[in-house]
Amino acid sequence: MATSMELRCWGGDWGLPSIHTESLVVLAYAKFSGAKLTVAPIDWTWRTLTGTVPELVCQGSTVTEPAQILNYLRKLRFNADYELSARQGADTMAYIALLEEKLRPALLHTFWVDTENYSSLTRPWFASRSPFPLNFLVPGHHANTALSRILLTKSDSPLHTITEVEGKIYSEAKECLNLLSHRLGTAYYFFGNTPCSLDAFVFGFLAPLHKASLPSSPLQNHLRQLENLQRFCDHILNAHFSSHPGSPQPVQETVDANLQKLTQLVNKESNLIEKMDDNLRSSPQHKPFRADPRPSPSNSTDYFQSEEPTNTKMNRFEHLLQTNIVTFHISVEIMNVHDEELDLKTL
Predict the structure, then answer these.
(1) Mitochondrial outer membrane transport complex Sam37/metaxin N-terminal domain: from which residue to which, for each copy (predicted)?
(2) Cα(93)–Cα(80) distance, rounded to whole angstroms?
(3) C-beta of residue 166 within 8 angstroms of C-beta of residue 112
(4) Shared-domain flag, residues 235 and 338
(5) Contact at 8 Å (CB) between 56 and 7?
(6) Alpha-carbon distances, residue 164 vs 21, 167, 176 (angstroms)
(7) In terms of domains, do 308 and 214 share one?
């Protein structure tokens, strides 16, 4: 019997299964190793503030942090690195450490510290996926955590501000991207023809930067100059995440679907018009009865000398008379009520 595993993470957008870097790492590794995960987004829940994501729940135990989750999956025999040599395994650990040290601070600054990106993209996204009143707390909480981490890891002095270390972190991040681009070359994956844990980490770090619509990002502009890294992200999305709910549909398929809906609507309207026309044609047509305002001399001026039977005319006349009498009584009652209201106001 297969083990049931649930991964709690932030939801997807921008064509990604998740916009969260650590969650993307675990999702990609699960795809590479064949692990079946049930994804449970924490969006619109109270766990957006207190939850530690990604979080893997399996057989009553909970595992957090990407490195620990990957080790746990390896113990369950979901290993994407089993074909790597000892040297390739050592290179994998070295490149993952490089990502954490050189690229992570720049990503945190890009999404959480940069004022323009934070106010126009990051804060609205996380606020819209947090329930009230957490939508006022969650973005600020993550932004403060990101700023503290950058200053703690990259500031040489506790008195340094984020402006003083900004140039340093972006310079190191661009060097890291250049090294990754040189190591990847023209291949689809970093080691051989199958993806491994290094591919999962690089994809998790680069995919949000590649897909997000950032108004201000020198790091994203540098990534766009490295075509092989962009191709790397797109290849993994198409090969392993093409059917996830956050993936965009092709434009042609969307146009065809809209055209089909429009055609169905027009057909329904045409059928309705045809039915109405058939009903009108099949219903009996009666000539409307109107009194001739200017009777000709050859015809009698008597109202009852029409083509209808006399009894029918009398019944209509009596009905009309009774209706006028009822209307008169109702008018009298309304006038009495109005007079009573005026008397009360006078008193």
Answers:
(1) 23-141
(2) 14
(3) no
(4) no
(5) yes
(6) 26, 7, 20
(7) no
Q: pLDDT for 30-85, tens place per residue? A: 999 998 999 988 876 766 666 678 889 988 888 888 999 999 999 999 999 988 99
Helix (H) or strand (E) holding 283: none
Do 117 and 238 sit in the same domain of this protein? yes
Strands laid side by side in the 38-41 sheet: 38-41, 5-9, 55-58, 61-64
Number of domains in the chain: 2
pLDDT, tens digit (0-9, with 9 covering 90-100), for 7-35: 988 888 999 999 999 999 999 999 999 98
User: Structural domain of residue 332, as residue ranges?
Assistant: 303-347
Task: Give 177-245 as a DSSP string.
Answer: HHHHHHHHTT-SSSSTTS--HHHHHHHHHHHHHHHS--SS-HHHHHHTT-HHHHHHHHHHHHHHSTTST
Query: What is the bridge-based pairing of β-strands 38-41 and 5-9?
Result: parallel
| CATH of residue 15 | 1.20.1050.130
Q: What is the pLDDT of residue 247?
A: 42
Domain match, 203 and 322 both: no
Return the closest-CA partner of residue 43 out of 9, 20, 6, 16: 9
What's the predicted TM-score (pTM) here?
A: 0.68
Judgement on whether residues 52 and 115 belong to the same structural domain of the protein: yes
Give the N- to C-terminal CA distance of the chain in Å, as an integer.
89
Q: Are residues 325 and 214 in the same domain?
A: no
Would 291 be classed as within a structural domain?
no
* 130's tokens: 């947090």
- For 68, 172, 199, 328, the CA distances from 76, given in Å and listed in that order, are 13, 37, 20, 91
- State both tokens at 326: 């009822």
Q: Report if residue 258 sits inside a domain.
A: no
Q: Are residues 190 and 317 in the same domain?
A: no
**Residues 247, 250: Cα–Cα separation, whole Å:** 9
- Looking at every residue in the chain, the average pLDDT score rounds to 78
Peptide bond into 309 cis (omega under 30): no
Both 221 and 341 in a single domain?
A: no
Residue 315 has pLDDT above 50, yes or no: yes
Indicate the angle between helix axes 197-211 and 21-33, nearest 10 degrees: 140
